[in-house]
């Protein structure tokens, strides 16, 4: 539940071991927080993250098993989390795999798992969370998208398309959910230095998990629907989106 | 739940409005409550989220019965009747409510559910002490009459139970006799908190009602200076119609809610309010509304805080922990707050009711903006309150943690046991009960 100062009690993260997720939690947890749920595929890794979180003794940190590709289980996981901590105040969807476009083109079947993890699993899970929040009359969904979703590049066609689907889904849901007292925030980071991008050359306007976490928490507090990290990317992509395709390809596909 | 079927409700502080399904008691259907349950609601004067239920149902009390026994002062009254309506009926007959809150616009049901207290707690206790029976709707659908003799645990849990044991529909309350509708009031203007407190202690021996307004907009030695008023019902029954009771209609502030309170206006108001009071005055005759319910003179006065709303933070600490009161006022003053209203009272013995707020000690009430900074400041203060053995008033609360309630209310398990017995599925629940884990 929320209190009068805007503080919320329960924070749930799907993909709870991701660096961005951990950084966002660090910025979102307030003295009002009573429970944090890390829903992840590797429960041991989740427990390690739980222990590393710097929280007061009064905060209960729960690790739940959630496999983004096990679609029959998503509703059950959401129900179990609700039964464990009560109302879902904030849900962060931080699951995702970057994949390798060349490998995907060489083995098309491998794209199935990648799309499941980036789109199907998150969408089904978010639908379940949205239904619960609608029943609650309050809640906040945070969806980790990417600038790659805005204008999909050849170099990350599957990933970009997947993120684009998730991004559009979240924005569309937002329109209906606001009347039910539920807010949605879509986060579009640029290149984020971290495990997922290790070994890749950084793009311009690269950022860090901590910066994404801070921007996300600020956007949640202010109830903003779309946040770009770094914020300059909003203007950059406003221009890039308008470029004719050949020009965009020349700039983007370096 | 479609948006069309919902209403927006909030507490008096207007900080966490929610959409709920609103039904009248007369139409209530226990089986239609769904998984979010229901909570009763009177006139919505609880400051926080006690009378709202996000995503669920809110049951509006109905009923107009006021059946007064002129000889004994026992009145059978519908829970939906407000203290205002009750007073209009009983004062002319020479009776008065034994306990009155700072507003007369609370229902009898709300007065019982919050176990309200007034300026006479040290002498007359809280509202539940004067209730002889309640008739209530339980989660089972049963409409039962409960007395302290028939079911002591349920009765004790209900008085102060914030509506969580069931919907109170009717109650029998013992009133106190008065020979006039006027009050005889003394005022003392005190230049610091020590003087306020010692004046209150001295006044209690010979006065039924004692209260102080204290200033939290000045720092240093003057912080906590205030105006103590004490008195009793006027004995003098001369005059054409001594028990005539005609409260004036409230003045209404037109236009949208505009934030008039900030640290500057709060400081100016506090200085003016302090200087306005006489240094010492005795035997002033005041009407009941003027003495008991001054803020009721302005309709929806809470709008001076604007759309952002405010919190009213009220705690009690044991008598020997008066330094916590001092520290609270000093902490607030140091933050240069938007603040103009702080009230100090002294409580006498409490009761055995598990969620009843009063306990022997000093109780301080402060109106403050509902910001994260204020919440953080109050959180630090609350640690001191709880460490001293104090607690918070649930009818006002919008901010504290579940841990603060379990620390402050040692009989919380007794309360939970009663709910386990009469409402195991938690059909009666509120945003308050969810937030505080009641």
Structural class of chain A: alpha/beta
The tally of helices of chain A reads: 9
Strand segment tally of chain A: 7
Q: N-to-C terminal Cα separation of chain A, in Å?
A: 48 Å
Q: Could you state the oligomeric state of the chains shown?
A: heterodimer
Number of strands of chain B: 21
Rg over C-alpha atoms of chain B, rounded to the nearest angstrom? 21 Å
Q: What is the CATH top level name of the largest domain in chain B?
A: Alpha Beta
Mean pLDDT of chain A: 93
Description:
The complex is a heterodimer of chains A (254) and B (438). Chain A is of the alpha/beta class and 254 residues long. Chain A has one domain (10-252): NAD(P)-binding Rossmann-like Domain (Rossmann fold), CATH 3.40.50.720. Chain A contains 9 helices and 7 strands. Chain A has helices spanning 19-28, 43-52, 74-85, 101-106, 110-136, 157-177, 209-222, 232-240, 245-252, and strands at 10-14, 35-40, 60-65, 90-93, 139-144, 182-189, 226-229. Chain A has a 7-stranded parallel sheet with strand order 3-2-1-4-5-6-7, sandwiched between helices. In chain A, helix 1 crosses helix 7 and helix 5 runs parallel beside helix 6. The longest helix of chain A has 27 residues, at 110-136. The relative contact order of chain A is 0.13. The mean pLDDT of chain A is 93. With 438 residues, chain B is an alpha+beta fold. Chain B folds into 2 domains: 66-178, Uridine Diphospho-n-acetylenolpyruvylglucosamine Reductase, domain 3 (2-Layer Sandwich); 182-399, Vanillyl-alcohol Oxidase, Chain A, domain 3, CATH 3.40.462. In chain B, the strands form 5 sheets. In chain B, strands 16-12-14-13-19-20-18-21 form an 8-stranded antiparallel sheet. A 5-stranded antiparallel sheet of chain B has the order 5-6-10-8-9. The longest helix of chain B has 16 residues, at 372-387. The mean pLDDT of chain B is 93. The A-B interface holds A 1-7, 9, 30-32, 34, 58, 86-87, 134-138, 179-181 and B 1, 3, 13, 15-16, 18-20, 35-36, 48-49, 54-56, 309, 311, 370-372, 374-376, 379, 398-399, 401-403, 431, 434-435.
């Amino acid at each position: 539940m929320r209190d009068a100062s805007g503080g919320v009690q329960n924070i749930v993260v799907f993909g709870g071991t991701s660096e961005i997720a951990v950084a966002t939690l660090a910025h979102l947890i307030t003295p009002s927080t009573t429970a944090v749920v890390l829903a992840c595929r590797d429960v041991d890794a989740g427990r390690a993250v739980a222990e590393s979180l710097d929280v007061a003794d009064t905060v209960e940190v729960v690790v739940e098993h959630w496999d983004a590709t096990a679609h029959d289980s998503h509703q059950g996981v959401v129900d179990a989390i609700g039964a464990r901590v009560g109302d879902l105040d904030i849900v962060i969807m931080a699951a995702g795999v970057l994949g390798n476009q060349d490998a995907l083109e060489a083995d098309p079947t491998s794209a199935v798992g990648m799309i499941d993890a980036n789109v199907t699993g998150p969408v089904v899970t978010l639908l379940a969370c949205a239904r619960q929040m609608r029943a609650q009359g309050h809640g906040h969904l945070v969806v980790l998208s990417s600038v790659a979703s805005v204008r999909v590049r050849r170099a990350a066609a599957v990933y970009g398309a997947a993120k684009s689907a998730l991004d559009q889904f979240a924005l569309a849901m937002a329109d209906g959910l606001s009347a039910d007292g539920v807010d949605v925030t879509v986060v579009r980071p640029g290149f984020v230095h971290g495990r997922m991008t290790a070994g890749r050359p950084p793009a311009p306007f690269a950022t860090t998990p901590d910066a994404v976490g801070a921007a996300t928490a600020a956007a949640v507090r202010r109830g903003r629907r779309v946040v770009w990290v770094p914020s300059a990317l909003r203007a950059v992509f406003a221009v890039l989106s308008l470029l004719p395709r050949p020009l965009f390809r020349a700039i983007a596909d370096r | 739940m479609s948006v069309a079927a919902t209403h927006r409700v909030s507490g008096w502080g207007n900080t966490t409005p929610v959409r709920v399904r609103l039904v009248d008691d007369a139409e209530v259907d226990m089986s239609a409550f769904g998984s979010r349950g229901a909570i009763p609601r009177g006139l919505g004067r609880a400051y926080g989220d006690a009378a709202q239920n996000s995503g669920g149902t809110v049951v509006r009390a109905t009923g107009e019965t006021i059946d007064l026994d002129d000889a004994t002062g026992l009145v059978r009254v519908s829970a939906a009747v407000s203290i205002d309506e009750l007073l209009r009926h009983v004062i002319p007959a020479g009776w008065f409510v034994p306990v009155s809150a700072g507003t007369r616009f609370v229902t009898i049901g709300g007065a019982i559910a919050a176990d309200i207290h007034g300026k006479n707690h040290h002498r007359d206790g809280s509202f539940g002490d004067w209730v002889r029976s309640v008739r209530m709707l339980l989660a089972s659908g049963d409409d039962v009459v409960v007395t302290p003799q028939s079911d002591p645990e349920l009765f004790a849990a209900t008085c102060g139970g914030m509506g969580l044991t069931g919907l109170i529909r009717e109650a029998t309350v013992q009133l106190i006799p008065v020979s006039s509708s006027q009050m005889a009031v003394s005022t003392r203007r005190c230049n610091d908190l020590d003087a306020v407190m010692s004046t209150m202690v001295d006044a209690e021996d010979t006065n039924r009602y004692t209260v102080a307004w204290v200033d939290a907009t000045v720092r240093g030695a003057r912080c906590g200076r205030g105006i103590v008023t004490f008195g009793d019902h006027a004995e003098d029954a001369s005059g054409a119609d001594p028990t005539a009771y005609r409260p004036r209609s409230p003045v209404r502030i037109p236009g949208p809610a505009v934030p008039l309170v900030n640290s500057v206006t709060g400081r100016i108001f506090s200085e003016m309010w302090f200087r306005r009071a006489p240094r010492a005055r005795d035997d002033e005759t005041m009407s009941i509304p003027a003495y008991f319910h001054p803020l009721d003179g302005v309709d929806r006065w809470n709008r001076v805080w604007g759309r952002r709303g405010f919190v009213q933070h009220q705690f009690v600490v044991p008598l020997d922990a008066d330094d916590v009161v001092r520290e609270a006022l000093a902490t607030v003053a140091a933050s240069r707050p938007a603040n103009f209203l702080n009230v100090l009272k002294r409580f006498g013995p409490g009761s055995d009711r598990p969620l009843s707020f009063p306990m022997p000690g000093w109780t301080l009430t402060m109106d403050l903006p509902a910001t994260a900074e204020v919440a953080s400041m109050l959180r630090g203060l609350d640690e001191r309150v709880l460490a001293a053995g104090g607690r918070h008033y649930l009818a006002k609360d919008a901010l504290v943690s579940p841990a603060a309630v379990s620390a402050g209310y040692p009989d919380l398990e007794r309360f939970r046991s009663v709910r386990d017995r009469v409402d195991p599925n938690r059909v009666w629940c509120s945003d308050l009960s969810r937030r505080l884990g009641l």
